[in-house]
Design goal:
By secondary structure, this protein is an alpha/beta fold. It is built from twelve helices and 13 strands. The longest helix has 23 residues, at 326-348. The chain binds adenosine-5'-diphosphate and magnesium ion (MG).
């Protein structure tokens, strides 16, 4: 005689108990209401077939399984899609992305990193822009080479450190002027090593400086890495462009589902060094604001176009390190907004784990 307890045990055994909403056993009939992992028809069919097979094998033919499989609620879909392997010790992984190159993504990354560090967080930067690595220059660490250290009996890469920020870049491995020709799989492998075979230690934030655009590297990163959220950098000229929207769409598409924490508008206005209170909106005002509203994401900050930003970047000392300066203040506000957005995100969603996808047709840009 089949008992409810026996069926309950069995559902646990085959690891579907979390999908079962309720069930009843009446003689040889077993009624089960379940929620599928995804609303896709084939998922439901697959689940049904697997259940029938499992019950027949366990209880024989006389037991009749009466299954009702329903689609998950949208919020449940989201939770189920976020899967994968976390990186121990790293709390928040923020991907910094842009639709186009040259908008100041690396500059923003470097300045956010030192700002967060000054705020008391432990911060790492992973330069994933393998085509144009600029982290070594921006942190004045071009001559450094990562050494190997032993952690728990395993050889690990020790990140380079400057201004209290840990960093790794492909730029530390190849000769500085040597053009590196990377194909997707190679690049993805190198990045994975810098992520997982490195002694990052405990980090509050790992900022990933992504290459511009929405190509293969992005896909391999967001497939492999438990990205907590993405920050999009744009300039006013590019803000209205399809590139930015495409960049955002890449993170928000259903199979990826990485929350976009917000938009940083770089070179938003011009401020001459000698007139620090003046703002000239050369490329127009509020474009980012309008677009952000349109897309339902917050603007985290407006960074002015100022000469010292470029100069500081060139000499390898991010401008936000200049205590008491206006620009340091702007970066601090931006970092705070990012954290607010992150806290909001962490409240509403489970910890992001790597997204598992196999192909993503229609999402890469051909140059
Ligand atoms: N707000 C800014 N004001 C002045 N120059 C800037 C600013 N942001 C970036 N730059 C300069 O613009 C150039 C491109 O910036 P970079 O961060 O390398 O862009 P990306 O990483 O998007 O390709 C660099 O020379 C940098 O110093
Ligand atoms: Mg760059």
């Amino acid at each position: 005689m089949l008992t409810k307890t026996r069926v309950q045990e069995f559902l646990k055994e085959i690891e579907v108990d979390d999908l079962v909403q309720n069930f009843q056993v009446m003689g040889d009939d077993v009624y089960i209401d379940m929620i599928a992992h995804s609303p896709a028809m084939h998922e439901k069919k697959k689940l049904e077939a697997a259940m029938k097979q499992a019950f027949a094998t366990e209880f024989g033919d006389q037991v009749v399984l009466k299954l009702k499989i329903t689609s998950p609620e949208p919020s449940q879909v989201q939770q189920n899609q976020i899967k994968g392997k976390e990186i121990p010790g790293i709390q928040n992984i923020i991907a910094i992305a842009s639709g186009k190159g040259g908008v100041g993504k690396s500059t923003v990354t470097a300045n956010l990193a030192v700002t967060l560090q000054k705020m008391g967080f432990s911060v790492g930067v992973l330069d994933a822009d393998i085509y144009g690595p600029s982290v070594p220059t921006m942190f004045d660490t071009e001559a450094e080479k990562p050494i190997s250290v032993e952690v728990d009996g395993k050889n690990m890469m020790k990140p380079i450190e400057n201004y209290g920020v840990k960093m790794l870049s492909i730029g530390y491995f190849s000769g500085a002027n040597q053009a590196v020709v990377w194909r997707g799989p190679m690049a993805s492998k190198a990045l994975n090593q810098m992520l997982r075979d490195a002694a990052w230690g405990n980090l509050d934030f790992l900022l990933i400086d992504l290459p511009p655009g929405t190509g293969d590297i992005h896909l391999s990163i967001i497939q492999e890495v438990p990205v907590t959220g993405a920050v999009i950098v744009s300039t006013p000229q590019h803000v209205a462009l399809a590139d930015v929207k495409k960049g955002i769409a890449m993170f928000t598409m259903e199979s990826i589902n990485i929350p976009v924490l917000g938009l940083i508008e770089n070179m938003a206005y011009f401020t001459p060094e000698e007139l620090p209170e003046n703002k000239y909106y050369i490329f127009g005002k509020q474009g980012a604001q309008f677009m952000a509203e349109d897309l339902g994401i917050p603007v985290l900050g407006e960074i002015p176009l100022i000469q010292s930003i470029r100069e500081a970047g060139d000499v390898g000392r991010p401008v936000a390190l200049q205590e008491g300066s206006k620009i340091a203040e702007i970066y601090k506000e931006t970092a705070q907004k990012m954290i607010e957005s992150l806290v909001e995100r962490n409240k509403n969603l489970p910890p992001t784990e790597a997204v598992k996808i196999t192909t993503m047709a229609g999402c890469s840009t051909k140059k």
